[in-house]
Amino acid sequence: MEPMTIALISIGILVVMVFLGVNISFSLSLMSFCGVFFVSGNFNRALGLLATTAFDAIRSYTFCVIPLFMLMGSLMAKSGAAEDLFKFANYFVKKIPGGLAIATVLGNAVFAAVTGVSVASASVFSKIAVPEMSKFNYKKSFAVGTVAGTSVLGMLIPPSLLFIVYGMVAEVSIGKMFMAGILPGIVLSFIFIAGILVMGWIDPANIGRSRTDGGGTAAKVETPDSQNEEMLLFKTFPIIAIIIIVLGGIWGGIFTPTEASAVGALGALILALCKRSMSPKDLMHLFLEATDSCASIMFLLISAQTYSRMLAMSGVVSWVGKAILSMDVHYSVIIGVFLFLILLLGCILDSTSILLLTVPIIRPVIAGLGFDLIWFGIVLVVAVEMGMLTPPFGMVVFAIKSALGDEIALDTIFKGSVPYLVMMLVGLLILIVFPSISTFIPSLM
Predict the structure, then answer these.
(1) Which residue of 70, 120, 169, 201 pairs with 359 in a disulfide if CB–CB is 3.0 to 4.6 A?
(2) Same domain as 108, residue 26
(3) Are 212 and 229 within one domain?
(4) Minimal CA–CA distance to 407: which of 150, 152, 134?
């Protein structure tokens, strides 16, 4: 059997295994082993590929950025930073119709700069913002949809786990990927705010108002604990300082992304200890939790790299690239097909798995078309994040459901997320039409 045929069959079996719910890392490793065995006819060579990849794939110094940024995000999530950011943002927008929803966008945008994981943002803000919006009669679907939709900023505004994964697989600068996400994150935040204002105007019940009450209860929203501006600023200043130090250090060339992740993790640890928000037992549990999450991602990275090597050995990657580049169609059609496939995969796979499966195949095509790989990375991450809101998988939606329990139905969260999917699609089109939004800041580095 031809190596190309073997690789294509392995892809088909992999898709079936994913649909059956088999662990993605195990599926990738198994198909890699089988693919190399049937291509080479050598059992030891197939086994050797697994061994050498497991040894080589993640021993690079660069991979330290993953556990350190995950630790930084976990410390911030558990230290009460998100609540402080939400209160601070709400203090300044409380008199605007839909102010609590806008505060959720702003809080998520800043919190994204210290977490890097959308699921973490969704879990934290569902416990902070949803009860406040419910208190002022916001529609349940609108409240949970706002948290779900805006939490995707966690993967777009740096530091971002997906940027790290993409940078490693696509072989582009992680530091430049981080800087490239800043303006797109700001643009998407403004789109969310504009969408909230429009939804509040079209249906005032979304934001706890009626068409006849002249403002209703939502106009009386106050900062949850009536703290003054100085106290709120005092609480949020350390968080913003950590963000400025980490991102400013990367942009200014003071830190590498790996060094910046260590500085950020140390700053987050000091902040958590100063706030006395965690006991030694909580701190140990947090370290173990971050280690557990990191281990699963590392295993996924190893298995995905093994699979990529098998595909390269079979020649399917170069064949796909040549076949697509030889097609007589406009480049926008090719990009559109790629993004459509990403959105479909988002319905059944988590975001990291999607990148690890698709980037090795897509990257040569995008590079062959002459596009900037950093720009495409931003576009790809936005498309992947849209998949986190779509059924049946929707990791962000399930994270909110897990945090809120029986007080909210799963279909209510999916329903509330639909307007934000539309807004993200608008943002995606803007980033495609105006690539300089993504490439401007990296060009200054």
Answers:
(1) 169
(2) no
(3) yes
(4) 134
3-class DSSP assignment, residue 182? helix
Examine the domain organization and report whether 239 and 372 are in the same domain.
Answer: yes
Q: Are residues 252 and 364 in the same domain?
A: yes
* Tokens found for residue 396: 């962000």
Task: Quote the CA–CA distance of 143 and 306 in Å, as a whole number.
Answer: 42
Tell me: do 217 and 191 sit in the same domain.
Answer: yes
Q: Token digits for 174?
A: 């992680």
Contact 179, 442 (CB under 8 A): yes
Please give the C-alpha separations between residue 136 and each of 106, 129, 139, 140, 440, in angstroms, as whole numbers.
19, 11, 9, 11, 41
- Answer whether the bond into residue 364 is a cis peptide, omega within 30°: no
Residues of the chain short of pLDDT 50, as ranges, are: 213-226
What are the residue ranges of helices labelled H in 136-171?
Answer: 140-151, 161-170
- Residue 318 host element (H or E): helix 316-325
| CB burial string 154-183: b at 16+ within 10 A, e below | bbbbbbbbbbbbbbbbbebbbbbbbbbbbb
Contact 307, 28 (CB under 8 A): yes
Would you list the DSSP string of 72-88? Answer: HHHHHHHTTHHHHHHHH
CB 121 within 8 A of CB 108: yes
The predicted model scores a pTM of 0.80
How many distinct structural domains can be found in the chain? 2
User: Do 357 and 433 sit in the same domain of this protein?
Assistant: yes
For residues 274 and 18, the answer to whether their CB atoms sit within 8 Å is no
Is 72 within 8 Å of 268 (Cβ atoms)? yes
The CA distances from residue 389 to 51, 134, 225, 350, 354, in Å, are: 36, 21, 32, 11, 14
228 burial type by CB count under 10 A (0-12 exposed, 13-18 middle, 19+ buried): exposed
Instruction: Determine the longest span between alpha carbons in the chain, in angstroms.
Output: 77
Q: What type of residue is 219?
A: A
Residues 23 and 124 in one domain: no
Residues 326, 337: Cα–Cα separation, whole Å: 15
Cα–Cα dist 401/407, whole Å: 9
Write phi, then psi, for 278 (nearest 5 degrees): -135, 140
Return the ∠ at Cα 19 (arms to 16 and 20), rounded to 5°: 85
Helix ranges (DSSP H) in 315-409: 316-325, 331-345, 351-368, 373-387, 395-404
**Domain range for residue 40?**
1-56
pLDDT at 419: 92
